[in-house]
Amino acid sequence: MLHIDILSVQPQMFGGFLSESIVMRASKKGACEINIVDIKEYGIGRWHKTDDKPYGGGPGMLMRCEPVFEAVEKCLAASTSSKRARVVLTSPAGKKFTQRDAEDLSREEHVIFICGHYEGFDARIETLATDLFSVGDFVMTGGELAAAAMTDAAVRLLPGVLGGGPAATSSESFSGEGLLEFPQYTHPVEFRGMKVPEVLLSGNHAKIEAWRKSEAKRLTHKRRPDLV
Ligand SMILES: C[S@@+](CC[C@H](N)C(=O)[O-])C[C@H]1O[C@@H](n2cnc3c(N)ncnc32)[C@H](O)[C@@H]1O
Fold it and tell me: Does residue 154 contact residue 102 with C-beta atoms inside 8 Å?
C-alpha cells in the first residue's frame, strides 16, 4: 500500500481531487492512502504564521522552516514504511517530473509532497527533500496542482487501480520504448469525411501491431524529436 502525505497551506484545494477521481477510487480499493496535512497547524504563534519576508529584500514572502520541518518530521515519525520515505519538494526549479519518476514513486511505500506557496521556500527546507520535482517550465502560484498531478500519475500505475490490468499502462506514451502513443479511433468508421485507417478494421492483429508501432515512431519524430 502506497501512503502519500501532501503538506499544504491550502488543503481545501484537494477536495475535488480526492472525492471525484481515480485516486479516490484507488484509495477506496485499498491501493493507496492519501493524507492531506495542513501546514498551518504547525504555524508560528497565535496566527499560525507560515511565511516571512526574505533576508536581503525582494518581493513576496517565503515559507518558513519551522512549520514545514515539524510537519515533515511528524509524518516521518508516523511512517510504517520499511524504507525511508521519499520527500518531494515541489519546485519549478526542480528536475522535470517524468513517467519514470511516476513509476518510481508507485513502487514506494511512503511519499511526502511539500507544496510551496508565496515566493517559494526558505532554502533550508531543501535539506528535508529526497527529490525536487517540477511539473514543467512554468510557474504556478502553489505546489498543490503539481503534487496532485504527480500523485495521480503514480497512483494510476498501482496494481488493480485501472481496469485492463498492466496492459492499460504498458503501451501508453512514455512507457516501454519511451515513444508517444499511436493514434486510436472508435465509432463511427467515418466522421465528416475522416475515415478510420483500413488496417484497424482488418482484424489482422500482426498488421495492426506493426501499424501502431510505425505510427508511434512517426508521431514521436514529428511532435517530440527530443524523445527519439
Ligand atoms: C510562485 S512559486 C515560487 C517560484 C519561485 N520564486 C521561482 O522563481 O522558482 C510558489 C510555489 O509553487 C510551486 N510551483 C510553482 N510552479 C511549479 C512547477 N512548475 N512545478 C512544481 N511546483 C511548482 C512550488 O511549490 C513553489 O514553491
Answer: yes
pLDDT digits (tens, 9 = 90+) for 203-219: 999 999 999 999 999 99
Q: Which residue in this structure is represented by grid cell 503501451?
A: 171
Domain boundaries 2-155, corresponding CATH code: 3.40.1280.10
For the whole model, what pTM was predicted? 0.95
CA distance 13 to 15: 6
59's grid cell: 518581493
- The radius of gyration of the chain's CA atoms, rounded to the nearest angstrom, is 21
- What is the CA(179)–ligand 1 centre distance, in A? 28
By the 8 A CB rule, do 12 and 144 touch? Answer: no
Which set of grid coordinates corresponds to residue 86?
A: 521519499
**Would you call 61 exposed, middle or buried from its count of C-beta atoms within 10 A (0-12, 13-18, 19+)?**
middle
Atom of ligand 1 nearest to the CA of 137: 19
Q: Residue of the nearest CA to atom 6 in ligand 1?
A: 119
What lies within 8 Å, CB to CB, of 70 at 6+ separation is: 42
pLDDT at residue 176 is higher than 90: no
- Cell numbers at residue 83, please? 524504507
Domain ranges of the chain: 2-155, 171-227
Those residues whose C-beta lies under 8 Å from the C-beta of residue 94, and which sit 6 or more positions away, are: 131, 132, 133, 134
Residues within 6 Å of ligand 1 by CB: 90-93, 115-117, 119-121, 134-136, 138-143, 146
- Judge: domain 171-227, CATH 1.10.1270.20: yes
For 78-93, the pLDDT digits (tens) are 999 999 999 999 999 9
